[in-house]
Amino acid sequence: MIIALLSLSVVAALIYKLFLYPYFISPLRHLPGPPLGHPILGQLPTLHGENAGFIQKAWFEKYGPIIRVQAPVGTEAVLLEDPSDIAACLDNQKGMQKSSLFRKIAAFVAGNGLLSYEDEQHDRLRKILNPAFSLTNLTTQMNLYYPEIISNFIVALDSALELKDTLPMCEYLEKVTLDILCKSTFSYDSGTLKNESKDMVMAYDRLVPLQNEHTFAVLTIIDMIPWGLEILLSKRILNVFNALFSRFKTFEFLAIATESMKTIRRSALGILAENMSSESHGPKRDVMSTILNSHNAGAGRDRLETSELPDQVLTFLTGGHETVTAALSWVLWFVATNPKCQYRLREEVRTVSGGNDIEDYTRIRDLPYLDAVIQESMRLLPASPILHREVMQETTVRGVVLPKGTAVHLFVRNANCSKEIWGLDADEFRPERWENVPSNINLAHAKLSFGRGYRLCIGRNMAVQEMKALTAYLAFNTYELSPAYKDQKIHAEYLLTYKPADGLPLRLRRLEAM
Ligand code: HEM
Fold this sequence. Notes:
The protein is an alpha+beta fold. It has one domain: CATH 1.10.630.10. It is built from 26 helices and 12 strands. The mean pLDDT is 87. Bound molecules: protoporphyrin IX containing FE. Residues 98, 114-115, 126, 185, 315-316, 319-320, 323-324, 327, 382-384, 387, 449-451, 455, 457-459, 462-463 line the site of protoporphyrin IX containing FE. GO terms for molecular function: heme binding; iron ion binding; monooxygenase activity; oxidoreductase activity, acting on paired donors, with incorporation or reduction of molecular oxygen. Pathway: Secondary metabolite biosynthesis; terpenoid biosynthesis. Keywords: Heme, Iron, Membrane, Metal-binding, Monooxygenase, Oxidoreductase, Transmembrane, Transmembrane helix.
C-alpha cells in the first residue's frame, strides 16, 4: 500500500514537473522560445556542445533577445544575448548570483573559494586576494617563469618536431600553461613539460577529465532531490563511501575526485609550508606568497585561516589552467588560419626581439597588433562562452519579471559578436578592429569574455600577460603555423570551457634564425 502510494506521488510529481508546470503554470510560459524539447532533458543537449552560443543564434533571431527554454526535468532557463542585458545581470549582485548548482560543483572540485562563495564570504575573500593580482605583482610573477618555462616549451616542441611536423597543440599548451600557473601562483615546479611525474600533477591530471557530461548529468539529477547534492558531496559521505563509489561506474568519478583532491590539498599544504618558512619566504613574490605575507600581517576577517590556504591553490588551478589553455588554443587557431595576420604579428614581434628571443617581456606587453590579435580571438571564441546565473530576488529584465529561482544563461559569445557594436563583419576575425575602436563603442559591453562586476575574473591580467608572452615569443617568432590538413575546421566542445575537441592538430615549420 505504502509503495503504491509512493509510486503514485512520484508519478504525480513528474506529471506536474514535466507537463503541467511548463505548459500551464509557469509565469514564464508566455515568453517566446523554441519548443520545450525532450520531455526529460529539455533543450539541454542543444545548450552545450560544439557550437555553444552560436547554435542558439537562430533562436535569438527568431524569438528576440529574451527567450525561455526548457532545461532538464521541468526546470526552465531564460537566455539573454544582448550585451547591455548581460552587463546589467552581471552587475546585479543582489538580484542574481552564480547558479547554486555551479557553486556546489565548484565547491566539490575546487574547494571553498571564490568560485563557490557568494555574498559576504565572497566579498571578504576577494578583498584579501585582489592585491596579489595587482599589476605590480604581476610583473614580478612574470619573472618567475619568463623566459625559462617558455624556453622549455620550445625545447619540447623542437624535439617533437624531429619526429613529425604536425602536433596536437592543446597537449603542449596544457603542459606549458600548467607549469606557468604553478610557478606564478605558488612557486612550484610542476615539471609537466619535462614529463616529471609529481604526485600533485598526476592527481590534477586525474581530476581534469572528470569535467565531462556524465559528471554534470549525475550531479544535476541528484541536485533535484532536496539537499541531495549537499549530502552526497559532504566530506563525511565522500570519505565513508569512497570504496563503494569506486565500484559503480556511475559514481566512480566521486571516488577519483575525492582522492585527487586529497592529494592536491596535501601537496599544496607541503609547498605552502615551505614557502612560509622564513628563509624561503622573503624574496618569493608568487600569488600565494603575496597572500601569505598578508596572512602573516593581517588580523581578524582580513586574514585567511591556514585551513583556507590549500583551497585557494585548487581554485587557481581550476580557474586558471583550462581557461588559458582554451583561450591560447583559439589564438593559435586563428593565427594558423590567417597567414596575413601571422606575417604581421611576426613582423611586429621582430621589431622588439633581438636574435631568436625576447628577453625583456615589457617590450612585448605593449605591442598593439599582438594585443589586438588576443582581444579578437577572445571576442570570437571566448573560453567561457556562457555564464550561468540564478535569480535570487525577483528581477525585471526587458520588462519581464523573472521569479526567484529562475536559471539565467548569459550568452557572452553572442554578445561579443553583436552587429550593433561591431558592424556587419562582427562574426569575422579582424584584429584590426581593435586598433581604432570608434569612440561610440562601449568597451565595457564589448569585452565580456572575463565576465564583469563583482565576479570579474581575478586572473584576467595574468592570463592576458601569459597569452601575449607565449604567442609572441614562442609560436610566431620562431615557428610558422598552418592547418594540419586541407579544409580543417574547428572541432570544439563546451562543458566548463569552450575548447578544441580534437586537440587542435597544427602543422609547425621552424623558421630560419632571424
Ligand atoms: C583566458 C583565460 C581566462 C578566462 C577566459 C577566464 C574567464 C573568467 C570568467 C568569465 C569569470 C567570471 C565567471 C562568472 O561570472 O560566472 C572568471 C572568474 C574567475 N577566474 Fe578567470 N578566466 C581566465 C583566467 C584565469 C586565471 C589565470 C585565473 C587564476 C589564476 C582565474 C581565476 C578566476 C577566479 C578565481 C574567478 C572567480 C572570481 C570571483 O568570482 O570573484 N581565471 N574567469
